[in-house]
Amino acid sequence: MPDNIIQPLIVRNNSSVLLDSIPVCSYPAFCETVTELLDREENHCLSYFAFHDQPDLWFIVAIANDRTGEIYVLSHRLPANGLLQLESLTPRVNALHIFEREICENYGVLFTGHPWLKPVRYAHNRFDKNRLINNYPFYRIDSHELHEVGVGPVHAGIIEPGHFRFICNGENVLHLEIQLGWQHRGVEELMLRKQGLLQRTILVESIAGDTAIGHSLAFAGLMESLSETDVSRQLQIERALALELERIAIHVADIGALCTDVAFGLGAGIFGILRTGIINFTQSWCGNRLGKGMIRVAGTNHPFSNELKERLNDVLAKFESQFVELAHHTYKLPSVENRFDDIGTVTKEQMLRIGAVGMAARMANLRRDIRWSHPFAGFEKYPIEPVVLPKGDVFSRFLLRRKEIKKSIAWIRNILDNEDFNIPVSKPVTNLSLLPGRFALSLTEGWRGEICHCAITDAAGDLRYYKINDPSVHNWKALELSLRNLEISDFPINNKSYNLSYCGFDL
Predict the structure, then answer these.
(1) Interval 404-450: pLDDT, tens
(2) For the chain, what is the largest distance between any 2 Cα atoms, rounded to a whole number of angstroms?
(3) 384 sits in which H/E element
(4) Alpha carbon distance 145, 499 (integer Å)
(5) What is the mean pLDDT of residues 87-97?
(6) ∠43-91-133 over CA atoms, to 5°?
(7) Residue 289 burial by Cβ neighbours in a 10 Å radius (0-12, 13-18, 19+)
(8) Which residues make beta-bridge pairs with 18?
(9) Helix, strand, or coil (residue 114)
(10) Strand partners, 58
(11) What is the CATH number of the domain that holds 89?
(12) Full-prediction pTM beyond 0.85?
């Protein structure tokens, strides 16, 4: 290994280590090591953040290896009482742009050479309160032949705030810039203020309402690793079942929403009805159609029983017969194919450069799926092979959902055929003693993609820092790229084909 490359700490998903065991290196060595790691296609950045460790800012990066399941952790320090300036890594590793921008906004660190050092969220506790969201520095092109189109932040319908700024030549989009941060809720800070385990659990269920199970599962894994709490194999399998039901429900709803955008009323109506059967089963299981209350640390209040197993088999049989018939008809309609095919295309190279994860990566021939690469919960005993498509257009995102629904149903049936659910499982704990001076990381694969929760405890075992990365943090740039050289009328179906989260981004 060259002298300027540092050996990072290697950890696994849902593990905790002593904070002091993370290598601290000089910034030049940090840059060389991170660049060398992220030059490899099998690696991608999970999280890069900073926190105060007086008198320094302590920077920690976590990089996933999708081939080996390893996670590389490395750090560097910057005196907080000196010049807050570092050379940007973004020109070398474009995927780090969003992380450096967030660190700049939160702590005032100037990353020299960063090509796009703009605010991310306008947090209430941001470093520079003079930077206001109404003065966002949009990219501009001065020309008498071009015009700008602004959409949002208030939209027609029940949708969260976000502003889309198009630069167009006639109907043709040359550039799209997306401005979020209109409702920064301070979730990460609230995770530290809330002291009760139940309060924190309810908070993570609300990070993104359509991903309540995905985020709460990441939180549960993190708390269990920080407290060295063992969880039974059956509980892990039940959690994975809930996660796949969440995936099926959202995917079928998104297929229906895309049908709406091409005026295919039959698909819009029936796919929406099919979603109801899945979420109604979730409600019968835990009392909430979105799965809130389902995942609790170290146990469950809603064990999965053999009676629920029989009912779920019936629900899936009815769902699948109707879904397959309508999907077969829908996906072969020329009016649907022609509207989606070759629209909003992004390449594998673009997805690698922006660090895309989840569906946005897989529909462009990039195999990134935490269930497969860094298995957790029931996916360790019951592996799942990710669906990967090569084309990267709206139709690929449309088709990927259909294929993933089929894959999830087959995976669930395999479990139902091979597991007995009459074994008692533990009740959730109401309080936990966390290990002091630890760093922990937990990954799940929500329906959008990779969810990453990181936590650091202090010398007393209290939460000192909590970091959340929703897949939308990585993937909003993909939507911007896929609008280039399309007509602006293509934006609605392109946007809906990603269905990225505003609130998951705007923590």
Answers:
(1) 999 999 999 999 999 999 888 999 999 999 999 999 999 999 999 99
(2) 72
(3) none
(4) 32
(5) 98
(6) 100
(7) middle
(8) 438
(9) coil
(10) 51, 77
(11) 3.30.460.80
(12) yes
